[in-house]
Specification:
Elements lengths: L48 E3 L5 E3 L13 H8 L24 H9 L7 E5 L5 H16 L3 E6 L5 H13 L4 E4 L8 H9 L3 E5 L14 E5 L1 H13 L7 E7 L4 H17 L4 E7 L5 H11 L5 E4 L2 H13 L6 E4 L3 H9 L3 E6 L2 H16 L7 E4 L2 E3 L4 H9 L5 H9 L6
Parallel strand pairs: 3-4, 3-5, 5-6, 6-7, 7-13, 8-9, 8-10, 10-11, 11-12
Antiparallel strand pairs: 1-2, 12-14
Helix pairs in contact: 3-11, 4-5, 6-7, 8-9, 10-13
């Protein structure tokens, strides 16, 4: 594994200090959907100790409201922030840091020299189009641009396996030096990805490796958000609005997909360890375009649901639309911070918090890992990018940390209208 000291070539990643959680306390906001602002005392009147996302001791009793239920960012964020990377890589690898693929000055000179005097060329193959690929592309483009590496192709597959296989094969035909991609289906696309290394092309995965492929012979690295950690963050925040013995609806992607599976694992593990009184009901979709309809039918059939955890922000938008159509006021949390989620979080009417990815930082790390492999260096098999808790009171900074840009006009207007709660 190549490690180098931090240099100006690495964009700094800042985590919220955990010490503030020990200094400040605050209560959750009023519950949506009839739940209390924190879990009520157990039937026996005894409180049960549990762990917050940061690993700090908390209690489910109303007399000891967890810090992560606070509405102010200074109190809530340190308690929501996991200590380190929670999850592991697709093959059980422990997490390496983005700092482990820092580009040194010597590396930079070698990369800029290219291959036989020609700039290195890279193709990018996404699974869909949207905010997340756009954020990744910005990180990739900015970082590659510093060193003269060219992106010669950037495609998406609209979650269609056949389309992505064709995109992979077309990318191979372009004869790039490297391909960066995320599988739509890690089993069905595996034979196509196997052809990448067979063609002598370096391969770096976003979030998940194709099944059966091994590092470093078939691919060089997987760079992923801490999906399990983000799932845990969203579960913890949602728990603040769920009454003792209440029910949470989990709107999940009903196929085997590493990233979403890890998010759901993080959430369910957190509920089991910290709020075992909560009943979980699942609503699974297989077509993301139908997530809203699935959520609407689920909510109609399950009137006992007190809140909803959604596996990413697109399905969360469907949940929120369904709740509004049915005249229901239930708390929702999710993972990812797209522009619509940011707008919803600015009002905090239904969306109460997110565990956000850092797509820009992830794109930078993917670019750095690829460039190091192109100059013959070995990089870690899995690199984890830390979870990012965001609530209404931290929206502007959270969006900046996630996307490396300020809030767009629509969520900014919503945030300004809800100041000082939105900040």
């Amino acid at each position: 594994m190549t490690t180098t000291k931090k240099s100006p070539h690495r964009r700094a990643m800042i985590l919220v200090p955990t010490a503030a959680a020990l200094l400040l306390t605050a209560a959750c906001g009023a519950s949506s959907g009839g739940g209390s602002s924190s879990a009520a005392s157990s039937a026996s009147g005894e409180s049960s100790a549990s762990s917050s996302p940061s690993g700090e001791s908390s209690s489910s009793a109303s007399s000891a409201t967890p810090a992560y239920c606070a509405e102010d960012a200074a109190t809530a964020l340190p308690a929501l922030q996991p200590k380190g990377i929670v999850g592991k890589g697709p093959n059980g690898e422990p997490a390496a840091s983005p700092d482990d693929v820092t580009i040194s000055d010597a590396d930079a000179a070698t990369i800029k020299a290219g291959k036989n005097g020609t700039p290195f060329k890279v193709a990018v193959v996404f699974q869909f189009s949207g905010d997340w690929p756009n954020g990744q592309t910005k990180g990739l483009t900015d970082e590659f641009g510093k060193y003269g590496v060219e992106i010669i192709s950037n495609t998406e597959a609209n979650f269609k396996v056949d389309k992505q296989i064709a995109n992979i094969e077309n990318a191979i035909q372009l004869k790039p030096d490297g391909i960066i991609s995320i599988p739509v289906d890690d089993v069905a696309t595996a034979p196509a990805y196997k052809k990448v290394s067979e063609a002598g092309i370096k391969l770096v995965f976003m979030d998940n490796a194709a099944k059966g492929l091994k590092a470093p012979q078939d691919y060089q690295s997987v760079i992923s958000a801490d999906s399990e950690g983000n799932g845990q963050v969203a579960a913890a925040k949602l728990s603040c609005y769920i009454p003792e013995g209440g029910t949470v609806g989990v709107v999940d992607f009903g196929i085997t997909f590493f990233v979403t599976n890890e998010r759901t694992k993080g959430a369910k593990d957190w509920f089991a360890a910290n709020r075992p009184d909560i009943k979980i009901k699942d609503a699974n979709f297989t077509d993301p375009n139908q997530a809203g309809d699935v959520a609407a039918n689920f909510l109609t059939a399950n009137p006992d649901v007190n809140g909803v955890w959604a596996v990413w922000d697109g399905p969360a938008e469907g949940v929120i639309s369904a709740l509004r159509a049915q005249g229901k006021n239930l708390p929702v949390t999710t993972i990812d911070l797209g522009d619509q989620a940011a707008t919803d979080l600015a009002t905090s009417e239904l969306l109460k918090g997110v565990g956000a990815q850092r797509p820009y930082e992830q794109g930078v790390a993917e670019a750095d890992a690829m460039m190091l492999t192109l100059i013959g260096k070995t990089v870690p098999a899995w690199i984890g990018v830390p979870a990012l808790p965001v609530i209404q009171n931290s929206l502007r900074q959270g969006y900046q940390d996630s996307w490396a840009k300020p809030l767009p006009p629509k969520p900014e207007a919503a945030c300004k209208a809800n100041e000082p709660k939105c900040a």
